[in-house]
Please model this.
Amino acid sequence: MKKEILITKDGSSTLFVPELNETYHSKNGAIQEAYHVFINAGLNYYNQQKAHVLEIGFGTGLNAFITYLESENNNKTIHYTAIEAYPVDLEQVKKLNYVEVLKATQKTEKFMLMHTCNWEEEQTISDRFTIKKQRKKFQDILDENLYNIIYFDAFGYDVQPELWSEQIFKQMYKALKTNGILVTYACRGVIKRAMETAGFVIEKLPGAPGKREMLRAIKY
Model:
């Protein structure tokens, strides 16, 4: 599918897919949304010095990169697994402005390494951060009891409702360890019900700029 680069309201870039009329991040601020949903409500809420993170939708690599920055800034050890069936073209990745907006140009090589490292192999990004990218569909995730945090960052329900199904969330529930959490920007009734049916306890939280609410799901 064709992808175009757009600049969101916080100055950071995202990708727009005309065929789906969908962006990879919020038009109200890609970086703001990533920090609000995945770092503040996810990684920081978990609040442990070591975490195994599963990202549903590697996409532009923004969530992985800011998680790496958090590991550096707060001495957290992160083992990061990212699922992506349709990787972004490397030439488009080079045009994303995350390292500039985040004032992390000294980490440009780290950002690019996340995109260029081999799929299905664990790559060391720093002493505290490793990443393993897996090229497959979300429906093919069969992991059990492996992760502390899931960043659920699939395309929206209107575009791909099958990615927000009860079956998908049952797989997410199995993949998490006890007391693990799943965070997502979404907050639809049908999504909340699918999560609850899968076994999660749900919290509604204030959403990122431009969105009223988001969801955090906990496996007890």
In short: The two ends are 39 Å apart (CA to CA). The first strand starts at residue 4 and ends at 7. The chain has seven helices and eleven strands.
